[in-house]
Amino acid sequence: QQEKEDLQGKLKLREHLSQTAGKSKATPAPSKNSDLEMKQLQCKLKNSNNEISKQSTTIKSLKNEVQEKEERVRELQAKISQLERDLSMKRHLIEDLRSRLKANQENEKTSNETLESLERKVKAQAEDCLNKKTCIDSLKQRLNVATKEKSHYEQMYHKAKDELEKKEHKLNNLESKMIETEYAMTELEATASQQLQGLAKQTGQALETVQRKLLLTNDKVEEFMTFVKALTRELQQSVQELRTKIKQAKKMEEVRACKKGLSQESVQLAASILNVSTTDLEQILEVEDDEETAKTKMEFEKDKEWLQYIQKLLEAQ
């Protein structure tokens, strides 16, 4: 912040000095160094502002994180107190359960003895039941297999009977259709041979006319190509001539403006200082700028690119 204040003070001083210099001098001409210093100071100001904003955002985020962590600590402390209460209750319950376990274990010993005797009886009865069930299942499976085979064979018999009837009916229809198609084929062959002969004559004539049209269109396309190439060249030449005329007109206007601004005495004085004649001084004033020459080169290159693009279009289909 201190650096920012210093830079703002320097900027104000520079502006004040530039204003005073402008008032004192008739033709203001600020030095390049002062402008560079001003730009550097402005850049430094921007950088310091950016750093301050970044640091303020980081401080805010850190404050939020600290508050969240404090709230989290409070929640954890409350949970720890609840867990301690639950632990004490669970210890009391475990002691009660242990006393009950001892009583249940004594009861289990008596019940286990009676259960063992009952399990032996149940095992014997279960083995008998299993043997009977296996016999019944095997008989049921045989019955199911036999009934399925019977129904399958009956279905196959009915299907075969129906298919035989359908095939006999189809055979009769096919024989009648074969006779009709043989008669129709003979008629079609006769008519087709006549039509083919006529078509051959027509296609021959059409091909001749199409070939003539193609030759004519090719000639027209070649004429169009030559016309477009000549047109593009003339366009480029006319554009270049117009540009040169515009530049010459601009130069003439600038020279006239310079001559109007400068009197003959000032021109002679400048010529005497430079030890040059007045005609040479006029030629020096008429020298082209580097920017104008660069522009002319760019325009010439663009014209070349345009010509190449048109060439590609003409070469393409």
Mean pLDDT: 81
Structural class: mainly alpha
Contiguous low-pLDDT stretches (5 residues minimum) are none
Question: Globular, elongated, flat, extended or rod-shaped: what is the shape?
Answer: flat
Note the gap between the termini: 69 Å
The DSSP helix count reads 5
> What is the count of β-strands?
0
- H/E element sequence: HHHHH
Helix content: over 70%
Q: Please outline the major beta sheet.
A: none
The proportion of residues in beta strands is under 5%
* Cα Rg: 56 Å
What does this protein look like?
The chain has 317 residues and is mainly α. Helices cover 94% and strands 0% of the residues. Helix 1 (2-24) packs parallel to helix 2 (32-261) and helix 2 crosses helix 5 (290-315). The longest helix is centred in the middle third of the chain and has 230 residues, at 32-261. The radius of gyration is 56 Å and the shape is flat. The two termini are 69 Å apart. Residues 1-17 have a biased composition (Basic and acidic residues). This is CNTLN protein. Residues 1-68 are annotated as: Disordered.
